[in-house]
Amino acid sequence: MPLPDTFYCAQQINIPPELPDILKDFTKAAIRTQPKDLLQWSAAYFSALSKGECLPVKDRLELNVATQKTDTGLTPGLLKILYKQLSPKKTCSKEELQAKWKGLCLPVAQLETLLSLGSFGSDIDWMEFFALGCSALGGTLISSLKFACEILTEDETGGAARIPFDTFVRLYTYLAQLDGDVPQERIDNFLSSLQPQVDVTNVAGQCEEKKRQEKREWTQRLHSTVTLLCKRF
Predict the structure, then answer these.
(1) pLDDT digit string (tens) for 157-174?
(2) What are phi and psi of 22, to 5 degrees?
(3) Residue 112: DSSP 8-state
(4) What pLDDT sits at residue 136?
(5) Which residues constitute the domain of residue 216?
(6) Distance of alpha carbon 77 from alpha carbon 61, whole angstroms
(7) How many domains in the chain?
(8) 40, 107, 145, 157: which one has the fewest Cβ atoms less than 10 Å from its Cβ?
(9) What family is this (predicted)?
């Protein structure tokens, strides 16, 4: 004999107050990231959320990827997630990288190819792996560095995509040496030719930062003056 249905009134159902916001944020993240395997990605998402770790979520929807029906593997948006998750440690274990890679539903074969190409052991230099990830995206040395700059930059989208010169030097040197066809003298000459432009850019950047700082200080003084006048009148 089936059990009778139990009816509850609204007062008996306790809905955690934080639940709506959690579900709303999760839904937005899933739409923005477009994971291949929603359940697998969801497990990684809530695991990171419960531990206070960086979430496996793209900054924005990659339209060219979202409209494709076949698995494209690593994308700039997914590589940027991995960078945010793993770069603070400088080095990471192979197991940790595999877990993050799996959480993004990326092909295992592609990861094994990159690990083999870099001859990595149990401990992985993150920036070297990141460089290889950019190489997988770009194909050529110049295209790989372009992806690296676009992923690492703090400039707004569509801006100059500037990154610290020492970071550029490390990425370029590693990829060029790994290529094997670029002699060290050519690497040194290329980097030396960039130095004057770097110096000019640094000066310009310092001037722009000074202007922004002066603008912030002026705004703060104006706000304080207006607040004081409002109190008097």
Answers:
(1) 877 888 888 999 999 999
(2) -60, -45
(3) H
(4) 94
(5) 193-233
(6) 8
(7) 1
(8) 157
(9) Belongs to the ropporin family.
